Amino acid sequence: MTKLPRPEIHALLADLPLFSNMSPDEIDRIARGSREIRAAKGSLLFHRGDPCLGFHLLLSGQIKLAFTSAQGNEKVVEVIRPGQSFGEALMFMESPYIVDAQALADSHLLHVAKTTVDEELAKDPKLARKMLASMAIRLHQMVNDLEGYALHSGKERIVAYLLRELAPCNAPGNTARLALPTTKGIVASRLNLTQEHFSRILHELSDEGLIVVHGREIEIPDIARLRANLA
């Protein structure tokens, strides 16, 4: 399988907020400490409790971060999409992984070694401030998610999720059509809902004429009317 050329790896890393304050030479050194990983659909990238020796950048595919409760129920923490990275905070904390990572589709990733990042921080400690800012943004997003779970109804969570998913679609006007990025069960778990509750709410929204469901594709006849359900 063809490997990515070094300049392409350099460009991918330079686009990460974590490294946006680095010079080209520093990025090159980080690139040399990176390796490509191919994960087949269904395979586990790492298990909860495994040592975290770096972080990952997803180039293509989809990765599910989840853990299993004592009762055996799976809780999806996040679904990683191309361009997103994960594992940075644990890498700096020198803590083991607290979730399992499973490929939901054939995936291509870069793994950036902790030792390489540590070497760059030792040369220029000011880089740590930029990296902390990047991780703070991710933490803020997670806090917003938790607030949504605690304060919003299941219907409001689903409506907010559908509206967030519209952004990549660049839909003109007041109508839109989107495809759920993964199965309804995984989306439900991500929103802290059971699959049955998730499906029931989709039916309710459909009965109200707010959405039209075609499998994993969802049509929104009137975006403004759907958004009014968040008020």
Keywords:
single chain, 231 residues, alpha+beta, 6-stranded antiparallel β-sheet, 9 helices, 9 strands, 42% helix, elongated
Task: Offer a concise description of the structure.
About 40% of the residues lie in helices and about 25% in strands. It is an alpha+beta fold and about 230 residues long.
Question: Over all CA atoms, what is the radius of gyration?
Answer: 20 Å
Number of helices: 9
Question: Which descriptor suits the 3D outline?
Answer: elongated
The class by helix and strand makeup works out as alpha+beta
Number of strands: 9
Indicate the low-confidence ranges by residue numbers. none
Roughly what is the average pLDDT, rounded to an integer?
84
Let me know the largest β-sheet: 6 strands, antiparallel
Please bin the fraction of helical residues.
40-55%
Task: Give the termini distance in whole angstroms.
Answer: 51 Å
Describe this structure in words.
- The protein has helices spanning 6-14, 24-32, 88-93, 114-123, 127-151, 154-165, 184-190, 195-207, 223-227; strands spanning 34-39, 44-46, 54-68, 74-80, 85-86, 100-113, 176-179, 212-214, 217-220.
- With 231 residues, it is an alpha+beta fold.
- Strand 3 and strand 4 form a beta hairpin.
- Helix 1 packs across helix 2 and helix 7 packs across helix 8 (195-207).
- The N and C termini lie far apart (51 Å).
- The mean pLDDT is 84.
